[in-house]
Amino acid sequence: MNRALVIGESLIDIIDGNEYVGGSPLNVAVGLGRLGRGVDLLTHVGDDPYGRLIAEYATASGVQLVSGGAGPGRTSTARASVGVDGSADYVFDLTWQLSGTPAVAPPRVVHTGSIASVHEPGCLAVAALIDTYRVSATVTFDPNVRPALIGDPDLARERIGHLVERSDIVKVSEEDLRWISPDHPPEATARGWLACGASIVAVTLGDRGATALCRGGEIRVSAARAQVVDTVGGGDAFMVGLIDALWTMNLLGADRRDELRRIGPEALTGALRRATLLSALTVARAGADLPDRAAVDAAADAV
């Protein structure tokens, strides 16, 4: 039980005419794989050139695709336009579905989020799988809201809330918190999620860094320096850095849930600094091109 299971969408990002493998959960899987973590990815791709490209890309990054994820039809795409500040707006052509329980060993950590958590029919299977795996695994979740794909905002908010209640670690952007709970300040919503049972709620603040809440208090870190090319994958890289840091601290797995609940501000500060470093390295590259262990260690030594 020393692997991660990532559940969620894979797609092709088409950015200014260039094609990149993407999808928030896939980015998390690839990021962990490039850091040398064992990763299984439960996803859905079409039996087409894009689907084969995704499979080859994931495998080259050390990710094992769970069998049964490929099916007839097209692979999802997201056409992105990048603003002068590096931010991206998306138009999606999406298919998201899952069936059955993957034939994998019980994972140490299971991650999901983004489109997978709210888009039917796949989101229903995602919720059931999280209930299944949280018995043995730490659950991590990033809502990574895509409003353009949400037909019923209230239902989407309900589904996000359901997953928050079952998660040990939640990473969320300040922008997403404003969408999820528009009538409350983002910090109030984050504190509410901590009260629901999460051990850590980490909130990314763009170029203002990040904040995190745990039972030992609230901490804040500055953003790591970066020459921003685009922000695609920056939040996913933050999630990868946070998971990896906590893994190194031996705080993942259901058998470590009590220890994770007791994490203190000093340890959490170290984990957040690692997460912001991975994010900075990623936004300095075109597309969601997450760094490997050697690049992260070199950047950490240079700080």
TrEMBL record:
The keyword Kinase applies. GO terms for molecular function: ATP binding; kinase activity. SUPFAM superfamilies: Ribokinase-like (SSF53613). It holds the Pfam family PfkB. Residues 17-291 form the Carbohydrate kinase PfkB domain. Transmembrane segments: none annotated. Keywords: ATP-binding, Kinase, Nucleotide-binding, Transferase. Gene3D superfamilies: 3.40.1190.20. InterPro entries: Carboh/pur_kinase_PfkB_CS, PfkB_Carbo_kinase, PfkB_dom, Ribokinase-like. PANTHER family: HEXOKINASE FAMILY MEMBER (PTHR43085), PSEUDOURIDINE KINASE-RELATED (PTHR43085:SF1). Belongs to the carbohydrate kinase PfkB family. This is Fructokinase [Rhodococcus jostii RHA1].
